[in-house]
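Explain this protein:
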Amino acid sequence: MNLQLKYKEEVENVKCDDINEEEAGQYKELAEQMIEFAVQNGGMGLSAPQVGIHKKLIVWEGKENTFHIGFNPSYYADGKDTNTVEGCLSYPDEQYFLTRKKSIRAVYYALNQGGKLIKITRKMTNDEAIVFAHETDHINGITIAMIGKKL
């Protein structure tokens, strides 16, 4: 599949559907392509709606520069506020100032070797927390242009 990035209004207020276990395998392939796309374009993460797929799927760069795949992700505030300046592949050459949590409790599903979705809950901090929140916001139709101040 040749991924086509969606821009600005195309990713705002998008509603995404959960991914069930039966379809997770096919979306794992998409996620691997999304990682490659993000790396090639200097992104730290990418969400499925950014490539025109309205499913709850994200990829993000974690610790030690490794990318992760998250099915049906969500997060909860778990720390103090931090001010951040963020960019987004869907808003090229733009940066936004916003406030995020320095620490979050991330909840997502990963596909194990047996093809089963397993629930993962873990604390994320600093850049990983910010990127995870940014990408998870996308699958909920929220973008940095909607919640931040353009610089």
Notes: The helical segments are 21-40, 126-139, 144-147.
